[in-house]
Request: fold
Amino acid sequence: MRAVLPIVLGVMALVPAVAGPNTMNASQLAQSAKAHLNEPIGLSGAYCYAATHGYECRTAEALRIATDAMPAGAAKSAMDNDCGELDGIEQSPACRFTLQMVPTEIATRDDDYTRKGRQVKGKITVVTVTVISAQRE
Reply:
């Protein structure tokens, strides 16, 4: 039994520690959005801007993030002052953010999204979230 314990401890040292919410890309979230309702997750590659009501983030998939508010800080200031809807549609690199958030609602609707660099119409997934933090990429 003594030989087993050091081997198990050695293997456990190779397993990375989880420090915060799972971070995923838009494709991963679009495929599993319902599985992440009401749990903190991270999303990289979101192109965010201040919208008429709250904030929206477009992605490289048929996925849109909607939120009523962004936490105060540099990312919110950038979204408010430097990023508009056109920046989101065109996926401007200056308006790309990583979000730590909690999905609270998921819906599907007909809307436009960017596919292979072109605006197309189709069904998109809209995830309403509470944003915990946002950081410019």
Remarks:
- The chain is about 25% helix and 45% strand.
- The CA atoms of residues 60 and 115 lie 7 Å apart.
- The first strand starts at residue 22 and ends at 24.
- Residues 4-14 form the longest helix (11 residues).
